[in-house]
């Protein structure tokens, strides 16, 4: 068990900044835990041990006089530093929390990021200077060690009970720390070392909220047909819970719902088999073949639980006996029941789950996935993963059991499906996170809940903050959303976010408390666009019921060929939002940044006043009216991390900014020479995601700009001068130019394909 520590900080040089590495390693001096020359924790426990690592990093461990299955170790008193932490509020899911002392750190915390400032900086917490020499960051990551896993928690006396690390750029700190742990532990892999499945780049539909467990072939056909007629055909389908052959023997004779349903057979249930009606299908293979041909689907995934079904498998089933299943009774840890209890887990704890012998689990997965693959299925969504932590007794404990199941799952996926086609779900414990060697996609928060109005803003904020940790190990999945919902634009923008704000810009968000804005940022001579909506990494999957779509919103996410404009990284909060509460403090906006190939994008969301964090005392929070809450905030090019990496070597900080909803462009003070920045497809939330390449050349007769763009519709760019002509695929096209704002637009007609645009000056 241990805490990993790394140290870096920024020092100002001539008004700019240079990153300096502190070679002194973390240490315990005079009863204080020293990191970067500052005392981070006082009154450090005597049994705490520091084990130095390379580059000024270290692991913290502790000794115990007696062996036990559960230890709680004190690190020291932690207070006075702003922090953001991620903790499991529910059995399955993490959410974020901000605070200033250890007493605010909940049980089951799995990441703690600390901001350490000099006293002068502490006096001004609203300062936007996040890279001054007075600031550095400390990261606490609870890790796995042998059969043990670690989590953090605080006491009412502000004592931090177990993990620690520091650095200058919090995003670099997280990435580098995860990579060090990856190398040290060898039980999981960083996302850069995994293969991302291709379904991420295509629009999808999940059947869950449309049908729940009543999913059936006819309903799926109707849904796909509805999308097709509306001009937004999905290329990726998830057939969620409801297709399997199951039974709930505990429910017999009871009027109460009991979560103990178990899997009887690996094959599909009667709904997906021939029943003689015209709308039926012969079997799963016939159905999948038919919908792939008729609706041109590229990928079909099927849902199953990591133990087969919610209650495992039926031990008495003839089809399951070769996997040697036994009834096991889950045992929840104090951390599970110390926060919010989950009624499903409580029910399983009472009635038990049909647990497959760990020695047989690969055979189960291989049989199930082999059958699905033979039926035309391309991948699986594997749910209920955290349940493994409760049934490890007698099998080496929770960590070793989880690792055995996870490795078997990875092996079966590799054997039966192409391209690492796996989505993990309900897997927010460190047992699963640090056992993820190959799985590259995982749900990043609790479900999107269309019938829970107070959960909408919490959902967006949870995913953004959870992606700080999860985004270094997997591509975070934001879950489905409804396009025909009161918060549809709010959720749609978040799922499309590949964005950034690159020009210092002040504005007022005068939308609903669930309002948002997206800005595309293009750095001259490339592209810096600030846009008024933000879409996310996971291919825009929605869960509409057939015939209830808002195609106006979907067409801002999906190109006519079914592809989406996916950004490079997981959408995460901007640096100045990391230690603020965008849901309940009554004043903070949530800004989420991302990058495209040649531009950045930032989404600005007003999450205040519509919901509360679980377990958070709402009495101390300002009471907000039910009418729209108006907030003001700042957007700057500095909000976008790594923008210089896509701007090019000749970039000097000049930026062009485009606001999606107002369709207005802004720019910094530019020189007398031509300045050009491609914005992208103006009618898409993530406009800049359409720009693939840019080339500028000077000729004696004038300048030529060549852009490669994917898609169709209105293409826009910032130009400091009106061009002579615009040529699309070797054919001259009409264009419009607004001299006041410098916005150049041209219509890309015809097929949704890769286009070459040449601007002549």
What does this 3D model show about the protein?
By secondary structure, the chain is an alpha+beta fold. Among the domains are: 4-120 and 132-186, no CATH class; 243-439, no CATH class; 654-760, Immunoglobulin-like (Sandwich). It is 17% helix and 30% strand. A hairpin with a 2-residue loop joins β5 (32-35) and β6 (38-41). The protein is globular. It starts with a strand and ends with a strand. InterPro entries: Aldolase_TIM, GH, Glycosyl_hydrolases_36.
Tally of DSSP helical segments: 14
Low-confidence stretches: 10-22, 498-515, 523-544
Number of strands: 44
Class based on secondary structure composition and strand pairing? alpha+beta
Shape: globular
Terminal residue distance: 63 Å
Mean pLDDT level: 83
Fraction of residues in β-strands: 25-35%
Largest sheet: 7 strands, antiparallel
Instruction: Please estimate the helix content.
Output: 10-25%
Rg, rounded, reads 26 Å
Chart the SSEs and their pairings.
Blueprint: E1 3-5, E2 8-11, E3 18-21, E4 27-29, E5 32-35, E6 38-41, E7 48-52, E8 58-62, E9 74-77, E10 79-88, E11 94-101, E12 109-117, H1 119-122, E13 135-140, E14 144-145, E15 148-149, E16 153-154, E17 159-161, E18 166-167, H2 170-185, E19 204-206, H3 208-211, H4 217-230, E20 236-239, E21 244-247, E22 262-268, H5 284-295, E23 299-305, E24 326-328, H6 334-338, H7 343-351, E25 353-355, H8 361-374, E26 379-383, H9 398-416, E27 422-424, H10 430-433, E28 441-443, H11 456-470, E29 475-477, H12 488-495, E30 505-509, E31 516-523, H13 551-554, E32 572-573, E33 590-595, E34 600-605, E35 631-635, H14 643-647, E36 655-659, E37 664-667, E38 676-681, E39 691-699, E40 702-719, E41 725-728, E42 731-733, E43 735-738, E44 743-760
Helix pairs in contact: 8-9
């Amino acid at each position: 068990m241990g805490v990993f520590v790394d140290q870096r900080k920024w020092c100002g040089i001539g008004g700019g900044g240079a990153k300096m590495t502190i070679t002194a390693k973390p240490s315990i001096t005079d009863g204080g835990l020293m990191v970067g020359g500052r005392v981070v924790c006082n009154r450090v426990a005597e049994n705490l041990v520091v084990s130095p690592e390379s580059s000024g990093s270290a692991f913290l461990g502790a000794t115990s006089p007696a062996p036990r299955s559960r230890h709680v170790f004190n690190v020291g008193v932690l207070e006075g530093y702003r922090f953001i932490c991620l903790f499991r509020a529910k059995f399955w899911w993490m959410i974020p929390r901000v605070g200033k002392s250890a007493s605010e750190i909940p049980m089951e915390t799995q990441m703690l990021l600390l901001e350490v400032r000099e006293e002068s900086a502490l006096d001004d917490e609203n300062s936007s200077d996040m890279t001054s020499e007075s600031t550095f960051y400390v990261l606490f990551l609870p890790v796995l060690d042998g059969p043990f896993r670690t989590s953090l928690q605080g006491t009412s006396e502000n004592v931090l009970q177990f993990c620690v690390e520091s650095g200058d750029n919090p995003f670099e700190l997280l990435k580098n720390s995860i990579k060090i742990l990856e190398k040290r532990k060898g039980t999981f892999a960083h996302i850069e070392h995994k293969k991302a499945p291709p379904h991420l780049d295509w629009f999808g539909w999940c059947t869950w909220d449309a049908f729940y467990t009543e999913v059936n072939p006819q309903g799926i056909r109707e849904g796909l047909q509805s999308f097709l007629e509306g001009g937004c055909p999905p290329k990726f389908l998830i057939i969620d819970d409801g297709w399997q052959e199951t039974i709930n023997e505990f429910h017999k004779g009871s009027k109460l719902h009991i979560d103990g349903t178990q899997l009887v057979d690996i094959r599909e249930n009667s709904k997906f088999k021939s029943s003689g009606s015209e709308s039926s299908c012969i079997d799963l293979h016939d159905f999948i073949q038919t919908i792939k041909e008729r609706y041109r689907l590229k990928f079909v995934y099927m849902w199953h639980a990591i133990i087969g079904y919610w209650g495992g498998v039926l031990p008495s089933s003839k089809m399951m006996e070769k996997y040697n299943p036994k009834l096991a009774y889950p045992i929840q840890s104090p951390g599970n029941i110390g926060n919010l209890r989950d009624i499903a887990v409580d029910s399983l704890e009472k009635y038990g789950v049909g647990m497959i012998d760990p020695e047989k689990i690969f055979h189960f997965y291989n049989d199930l996935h082999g059958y699905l693959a033979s039926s035309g299925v391309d991948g699986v969504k594997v749910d209920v993963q955290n349940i493994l932590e409760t049934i490890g007794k007698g099998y080496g404990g929770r960590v070793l059991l989880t690792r055995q199941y996870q490795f078997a799952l990875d092996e079966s996926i590799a054997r039966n499906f192409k391209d690492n086609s796996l989505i993990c779900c309900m897997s927010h414990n460190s047992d699963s996170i640090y056992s993820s060697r190959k799985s590259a996609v995982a749900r990043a928060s609790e479900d999107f809940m269309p019938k829970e109005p107070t959960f909408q803003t919490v959902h967006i904020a949870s995913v953004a903050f959870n992606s700080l940790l999860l985004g270094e190990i997997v591509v975070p999945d934001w879950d489905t959303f409804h396009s025909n919902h009161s918060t549809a634009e709010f959720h749609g923008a978040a799922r499309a976010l590949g964005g950034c704000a690159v020009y210092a810009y002040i504005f007022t968000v005068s939308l609903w408390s669930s309002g948002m804005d997206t800005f595309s940022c293009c750095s001259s001579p490339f592209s810096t666009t600030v846009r008024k909506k933000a879409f996310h990494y996971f291919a825009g999957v929605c869960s509409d019921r057939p015939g209830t779509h808002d195609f106006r919103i979907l067409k801002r996410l999906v190109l006519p060929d079914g592809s989406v404009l996916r950004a490079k990284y997981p959408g995460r909060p901007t640096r100045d939002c990391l230690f603020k509460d965008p849901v309940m403090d009554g004043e903070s906006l949530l800004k989420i940044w991302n990058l495209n190939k040649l531009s950045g994008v930032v989404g600005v969301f007003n999450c205040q006043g519509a919901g509360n964090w679980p377990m958070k005392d709402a009495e101390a929070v300002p009471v907000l009216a039910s009418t729209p809450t108006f907030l003001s905030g700042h957007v700057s090019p500095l909000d976008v991390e790594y923008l210089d990496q896509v701007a090019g070597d000749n970039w000097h900080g000049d930026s062009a900014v485009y606001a999606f909803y107002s369709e207005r462009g802004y720019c910094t003070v530019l020189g007398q020479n031509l300045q050009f920045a491609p914005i992208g497809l103006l009618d898409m939330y993530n406009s800049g995601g359409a720009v693939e390449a840019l080339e500028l050349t000077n000729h004696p007769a004038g300048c030529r700009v060549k852009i490669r763009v994917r898609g169709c519709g209105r293409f826009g760019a910032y130009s400091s001068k009106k061009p002579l002509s615009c040529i699309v695929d070797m054919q001259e096209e009409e264009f419009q130019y607004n001299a006041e704002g410098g916005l150049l637009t041209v219509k890309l007609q015809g097929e949704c394909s890769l286009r070459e645009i040449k601007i002549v000056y």
